[in-house]
Amino acid sequence: MIILGVDPGLTCTGWGLVAKAGSRLSHVANGQIRTDIKLTMAERLVQLDAALTEVILAHRPDSGAVEEVFVNVNPQSTLKLGQARGVAMLSLARSGMPVAEYPTKVIKKALVGTGGADKKQIQHMLKVLLPGVKLAGEDASDALAVAITHANMLGSHR
């Protein structure tokens, strides 16, 4: 089973793919999608959808998961993040795959053991869980963490 994790953002959306065979996980691919800040909001959302659709068509994941929106101090930032998240969920769902959502604290706890883990701890655990992985950036590593969390949750529901 191939699982796609997405860490949504309007400026940069991370994506990460893992393969699950029994209890074994392996890295498939990861990357980041950057939208052009000179474009309108609608054009940036179209850019994000097109790029995520390319990832989906290239890798044909069986299941997907998206990180839930956290509330920023700036309501405008939260709104933009929510719009990017909506596009991410639409892109995944439109392909026919089931889509799960996980809060940031659940993802951190699933990977590191504490909901208060920082980015360095997440990246360290990714290197332990996916030996030899080359991370495309912070957003890509967060997306791989989402994919791994979903892979583990799938296993616990059976």
UniProtKB/TrEMBL annotation:
Report the active site residues. 7, 67, 139
Q: What is its EC number?
A: 3.1.21.10
Output the PROSITE patterns linked to this UniProt entry: RUVC (PS01321)
User: Which residues take part in binding Mg(2+) 2?
Assistant: 67
Cofactor(s) the protein requires to work: Mg(2+)
Quote the record's binding site residues for Mg(2+) 1: 7, 139
Q: Which UniProt keywords apply?
A: Cytoplasm, DNA damage, DNA recombination, DNA repair, DNA-binding, Endonuclease, Hydrolase, Magnesium, Metal-binding, Nuclease
How is its cofactor bound, per UniProt? Binds 2 Mg(2+) ion per subunit.
- Reaction(s) catalyzed by this protein? Endonucleolytic cleavage at a junction such as a reciprocal single-stranded crossover between two homologous DNA duplexes (Holliday junction)
Report the locations given in the UniProt record: Cytoplasm
Subunit info here reads: Homodimer which binds Holliday junction (HJ) DNA. The HJ becomes 2-fold symmetrical on binding to RuvC with unstacked arms; it has a different conformation from HJ DNA in complex with RuvA. In the full resolvosome a probable DNA-RuvA(4)-RuvB(12)-RuvC(2) complex forms which resolves the HJ.
Q: Which PANTHER family does the entry link to? A: CROSSOVER JUNCTION ENDODEOXYRIBONUCLEASE RUVC (PTHR30194)
Family, per the entry? Answer: Belongs to the RuvC family.
What is this protein's function per UniProt? The RuvA-RuvB-RuvC complex processes Holliday junction (HJ) DNA during genetic recombination and DNA repair. Endonuclease that resolves HJ intermediates. Cleaves cruciform DNA by making single-stranded nicks across the HJ at symmetrical positions within the homologous arms, yielding a 5'-phosphate and a 3'-hydroxyl group; requires a central core of homology in the junction. The consensus cleavage sequence is 5'-(A/T)TT(C/G)-3'. Cleavage occurs on the 3'-side of the TT dinucleotide at the point of strand exchange.
Indicate what this protein is called per its UniProt record: Crossover junction endodeoxyribonuclease RuvC
User: What is the species of this protein?
Assistant: Novosphingobium bradum
